[in-house]
Amino acid sequence: MSPSPLAMVWSEPGRPHQMIASPGVHLAPGDALVQIEFATICGSDVHTVRGDRSAPTPLVLGHEQVGRVVALGDGAVRSDGSPLELGDRVVWSLAVSCGACDRCVRGLPQKCRSLAKYGHERITRGWELTGGFATHVHVRAGTAIVTISDAVPAPVAAAASCATATAVAALDAASASIDLDGALVLITGGGMVGLSAAALAVEAGAEVIVSDPDAARRSFARGIGAIPADPRTEMGNPEHLDTVLAARARRGLLEVTVAIEASGATAAVDTVISRIGVGGAVVLVGSVSPGPAVALDAESVVRRLVTLKGVHNYTPAQLARAVAFLERSWRTVPLGDLVGTSYPLDQLDRAIDDAATGGHVRVGVVPSLGVASALGHQPY
């Protein structure tokens, strides 16, 4: 290809990314080459770069992105089985799955026995363009590819392949036990997953409380129809969780029946387990990097008939439903506003440093090159 696709390769904590060129891409049957339009930095990217979690290196990070198909292998298809076409604007699943192992057959393709994950794999000869922090991604057969309308803004579309689809999976896990319509839902963590889950739950007819220490995130939650709570406040403050719950009880919502933990904070895990009502469902989503152990009062869980579930990633059907949600709601649920700023691809280290401050829910990465491109790049 000319010009050659470029990717930002990460090797170890404390070492800057290196821009690498991939002059040749071989597409096997079912593969596709997608030119990136926009990518966002997920919290897991930050955790990896900081060394909070292990990763095989060298690798190309990034797994939240939207792009357009520019080349196809024979027989490449969308997740619904229809032929993929040149020019399709697409998002795709985090996971590459075989579709035939026992886990795939059980409906757990995100835990396939031969799983590969975009933005998480060591680059190898023949699959160098493995993550979203690049100009192109080599999307392999076994990936769920979903088209998305050109009308959906790129900062909204990019998060579909991680945050939005994970939020769909979290609510699916809860609604298997509890009808969301009319339920009182507590969500701890007002990041992209938590706020997406809040928007989905509000749409489903739930009364939703979002607990987060950041005032801007609580304000966003209020704007999409949720009730904000501040975990740092003292009793008597109108945003103290007990005060918020008492106000709901006066309206007949006597206890939390669904709780979704989306922050990964140990205190928040304690909160959702302790505050869930009798017969309620707790879904843990945010604990995706090592952290302190959480004490569990097993007797209390048993006596309250609590259902406790973990959700990690999602299925192809949940990705398709995430895209459908974004296509119908992006005007009224401005998730793109949570992408606070964007950087050119060759300033990725600055972008990740910015994302690590927590000042923005998401930081964007665009494939254009800034002044750092004058430093050049090396071929694979």
TrEMBL record:
Q: Which GO terms describe its molecular function?
A: alcohol dehydrogenase (NAD+) activity; zinc ion binding
User: What cofactors does the UniProt entry give for this protein?
Assistant: Zn(2+)
Q: What are the residue boundaries of the Alcohol dehydrogenase-like N-terminal domain, all occurrences included?
A: 29-143
GO CC terms in record = cytoplasm
Q: Origin, by domain of life?
A: Bacteria
Q: Where is the Alcohol dehydrogenase-like C-terminal domain?
A: 193-327
* EC class (word): oxidoreductase
Q: Which Gene3D superfamilies match?
A: Medium-chain alcohol dehydrogenases, catalytic domain (3.90.180.10), NAD(P)-binding Rossmann-like Domain (3.40.50.720)
- Endpoints of the signal sequence: none
Q: What is its EC number?
A: 1.1.1.1
Swiss-Prot/TrEMBL keywords: Metal-binding, NAD, Oxidoreductase, Zinc
NCBIfam families tied to this protein? HpnZ_proposed
Family membership: Belongs to the zinc-containing alcohol dehydrogenase family.
What's the protein name? alcohol dehydrogenase
What is this organism's lineage? Bacteria, Bacillati, Actinomycetota, Actinomycetes, Micrococcales
